[in-house]
Amino acid sequence: MSDQDLLRVEGLHVGFRAGDQMRDVVRGVDLRIKPGEVVGLVGESGSGKSITALAVMRLLPPGAAITSGRVTFRGQDLMEANNAEMNRLRGGAIGMIFQDPLTALNPALPIGRQLGDAIRAHQPVSWRQAQTRAEELLALVGIPFPKERLRAYPHELSGGMRQRVMIALAVSSNPSLLIADEPTTALDVTVQAQVMELIDRIRDEFGIAVLFISHNLELVAEIADRVTVMYAGRVVESGGVETLFASPNHPYTRQLIRCVPRLDGGRGAMPTIPGLPPRVGALPMGCPFAPRCEVAEARCSAEDPPMRWRGEQMAACFLAAS
Amino acid sequence: MMARVISACGGTGGFIGACLMAMLIVDALAAPWIAPFDPLKVDMLNALSPPDAVHWFGTDQNGRDVLSRVIWGGRASLEVSALAVLIGVCGGVSLGLLAGFFSGGWLEQSLMRILDAMASIPLLIWAIALVGILGVGSVHIAGFSFGNEVKLLALLGVLYVPTLARITYTTALGEAGANYVAARRLQGVSGVRIMLSDVLPNCLSPVIVQATLLLAIGIVIEASVSFVGLGVQPPWPSWGNMLADARNYLFSGEWWLSVFPGACISLSVVAINLLGDGLRDALDPRHSASALTA
After folding, report:
1. B292 CB near a chain A CB, below 8 Å?
2. Is A320 within 8 Å of chain B by CB?
């Protein structure tokens, strides 16, 4: 519990309106990011990773709302911040990149214009200065011929280039936190490696903290300092990347890690986790993972598991070693 | 070079349309210099003379040169329909954009319902009714005197608003939910700025196509209203009131009085529609995307 946390999310609940009641899709998420640190947020589709990120930015889709919890950024309570203050943070101190860089860029405008707009939304510079800055940014993210590229439209760039442009946009105002929501999912593997390298380099050069959201454990293992695993809107395990991968404490994490394909693994069927994540509104009693868990006991389906700490590592499971 | 120009107009049809349209615009802008005679100059001795080397399109019942009148009439037609489209685009695009971008509120509902009500009354009936109520004659505003057609073009412009607003609204509604808009918000760009600099450019291509087609409708309505005597007032020529005059000579053999202005109306409507269809092809994002990657 220190004040040096850059971002702190405590007990965050996010609900979607269903009829006249709210159904929580994020149910008590705690997250902590220190300056310059990379935190991986892992989970299956629908586990609430992206919604958590959008809740931090206070830009939830229509129908969704934060029902309880606290989000503080550099000591400022974001739940209390007004719209103007949030707009200063978005793209200012917090940058964000997305899964699909094509749809996240405006197809009708050249990228120089989009970069310029984003820069001028946060910095009192002239259009010309913004263009110079945009050119520097493109060079920084490794786009060749940046001056010429300023006039290019998104459809004229490849997927990897577009993601680089998105990264340039996200870091245009020297943020202290970068939220990367599945930044490589839409890219092929070689481009994915380049983009990961770029994120890593930017983090080193500028000391930007990164919240790296992914369903890809390997990528997270590669880049993150600490990892938080989510399941059905809840944090089931979190801890340092090495300890978590070496000795996962929660059965879900364990089973997930087993599903990662390995080059030296034997042939035959890939291991999978049987069953499906529970549907929102049809959550089982007790631990949400119990129906799919290979080691579940009777009490797992009866009461909520407690958070058990082992050093810096936390697992929400009765069976976790403490 | 030629091939690029043709493909920018959306094919051969669009190119022909664009050429005819360019001629019409030149005609409208340069009427005083192109027209061989004064369109108002009466020469009773030469009345109703058939086309010859001096009067290429013949003369009318007052001996006025039909070619000159057709040229000046084109100016009136284009002026009315172009200014009406301009008013319609300005009003329609801004209302549609507001309603589409700030959807889901009272603003959207009230704007769109008012526009629905306006759109439910046919254009031509509105035009005739209003000019009928206000009466023909010049309009005097702040010391300036405007011709009767100003009433017509202002009304026409207002009546174009619902159509154009609806088109902008539908597109803006889709664009407002697009990922890049969410991305812009996450970059901290304010709502109004996103609306103007991101959503607006993406809404324009269907508006451009529709505006072109409304230009054609405007020419027909101007001609119709002038034909019944509520538009451009004599002695000034318009294709519509020239046709009205020519009615009396339809069966007595003076064919040039009706053929030339009539052909001009048809030709410009065809030209504008060709251009509109061509633009639709040229501006279709799927179409242009495939052309660029090829």
Report:
1. yes
2. no
